Amino acid sequence: MKNLVLTFILLASFSSMAQTSKEYTQKGRELIDKRDYMEAILNLNKAIELDSKNATAYFLRANLKEKFEDLHGAMKDYNLAIDSNPKSADTFFARGNVKMKLQDYYGAIEDFSAAITVNENYVEAYFNRGKAKQLLLAYEDAINDVSKIIQINPKSIDAYYMRGILRLDFGDMKNGCLDLSKAGELGDLRAYEIIKEKCNTKVVNNND
Fold this sequence. Notes:
It contains 11 helices and no strands. It has helices spanning 2-33, 37-50, 55-67, 71-84, 89-101, 105-118, 123-135, 139-152, 157-170, 173-186, 190-199. The N and C termini lie far apart (105 Å).
């Protein structure tokens, strides 16, 4: 009987500890919303101290570290968050963004791809993966990523604008200009500046 009582107490204590970790995490989230970042960090530290597998606390703490340009600290926390929850598309996406800042474009592409594997309609992951591919001069692959965004959301202004730029860089003048025209039609006035500069050049007839 004593063993049963002891087991019950231990289970109750564990449950209480897990709940307390969640409470500290929620408090940290609320403090972030209030921009009280130092107090938020302290609460998230406590949440992690009480539950070393608290993926949300690691994720939020990583967000704060990234905000204050502690990119390596943020990377470490995103790693721990992924270890605790390897099915979080948002964490892969966030770690990919850190790698972008560190100019690790191949690593970023891998993380954005992991986010897309978890959530095949993750528009922001397609967009940033396209940017990483653009920086690696892999224009055709980048165009495919942005085209996927347009397939998901046919009124994505940013996607038409980016695909237009990519197509121009890739040498596809006509379709690039048409994409920029669509971006302008949807409300991106920057597109018309590019159209004026790139799309209205006079065609020279060699027979003249």
